[in-house]
Amino acid sequence: MKTTSKIYTALIMIFLFAPIAVLLIFSFNESKSLSVFSGFSLHWYSELFHDYATLNALKNTVLLAVCASVIATVTGTAAAVGITKMRNKYLKVTLNTVTNIPMINPDIITGISLMLMFVFVGRLFGAATSLNFGTMLISHITFCLPYVILQVLPKLQQMDKALPEAAMDLGCTPFKAFYKVIIPEILPGIVTGMIMAFTLSLDDFVISYFTSGNGFQTLPIRIYNMTKKTVTPKMYALATLIFFVILMLLLISNLADSEGDKTIKEARKRKKMRKATEAAN
Question: What's the pTM?
Answer without folding.
Answer: 0.78
